[in-house]
Specification:
Structural class: alpha+beta
Strand content: 15-25%
Largest sheet: 8 strands, antiparallel
Radius of gyration: 24 Å
Distance between the termini: 30 Å
Length: 279
């Protein structure tokens, strides 16, 4: 990878710091007890939002369930009994699958990720942050907030320039059909299917990407399938080049664990051609 690298992704993280900052403070130090109060307040809000999202997903599932079951021929007590059973099943599903401890761990991991990202800020900004713990909960002085806003905008511009350069390089290559590789960036990856002839990348949204005669050149981590491990895998960056009459497609992949930990890793595939699978 030359443009959409791990360092490029770290620039994205810095560009998004401004989204944390939601509260203004005067900059004075606070006690450990006060910090714990603010941390717990943020945690409870995180749990509430996760639970509301969970309920929304269950309601969607319930709607699909009702659509599948035809109750038009049922009436009276039988229909009421069916409705009570359906509600009981949905409620049981909500209680069984919402894991508050998992959400708490996810919140802690998110906080630790913010600490890591915050500590990578330029020294002139870091020296103005009186308490980096509070900063990672979204609290900052006006001065710090203004400095981070300017810095984040510059990082965003840098990120977008790299995407544009990589897209222009990819567009210069000729394939049997036109492929807009930019469509595959920031997309959830469901599976990587391999056989003797091809390697196929299956996505949630775009059509599968097939590398004819594909073989793995570089792989930094093992791909974890979502159904087996609850990992979420996404293509964060993608670059293509031609080398020794072969095409090389390079991926920057982010694998997120159920607890919110993200692993960045490279995967390079070499093949004779790259095409879209139109089924």
């Amino acid at each position: 990878m030359k443009y959409l690298t791990k360092k490029w992704y770290h620039n994205i993280e810095q560009a998004l710091i401004i989204k944390w900052l939601k509260c203004r403070i005067n900059g004075e130090d606070i006690s450990e007890e006060k910090f714990q109060q603010l941390y717990n307040k943020d945690l409870q809000k995180f749990i509430k939002n996760a639970y509301l999202k969970h309920i929304s997903l269950m309601e969607d599932k319930d709607f699909e369930f009702k659509e599948l079951v035809d109750t038009s021929g049922i009436s009276g007590e039988a229909k009421n009994a069916w409705e009570q059973l359906r509600i009981k099943l949905v409620d049981a599903d909500i209680q069984e699958k919402f894991d508050e401890e998992e959400i708490k761990q996810k919140h802690q991991n998110l906080y630790e990720e913010r600490l890591r990202i915050a500590k990578s800020l330029p020294p002139n900004i870091l020296k103005e942050i009186s308490d980096i713990r509070l900063f990672c909960l979204g609290y900052a002085t006006k001065k710090v907030s203004d400095m981070v806003t300017i810095y984040s905008k510059k990082q965003k511009e840098k990120v977008n320039r790299q995407i544009e350069i990589a897209s222009q390089k990819n567009a210069k290559l000729q394939f049997k059909e036109s492929i807009n590789f930019k469509d595959y960036i920031k997309q959830e990856l469901l599976n990587i299917e391999m056989n003797e002839d091809n390697i196929t990348f299956v996505f949630v949204n775009p059509l599968p990407l097939v590398i004819n005669g594909g073989k793995i050149i570089k792989q930094e981590a093992k791909f974890n399938r979502i159904k087996q491990t609850a990992y979420i895998n996404g293509v964060l960056g993608l670059e293509v080049q031609k080398k020794d009459e072969k095409y090389e497609i390079q991926f920057l992949i982010g694998s997120e664990s159920p607890y919110g930990k993200i692993i960045l890793w490279y995967l390079t595939i070499q093949g004779d051609n790259i095409r879209i699978d139109h089924y």
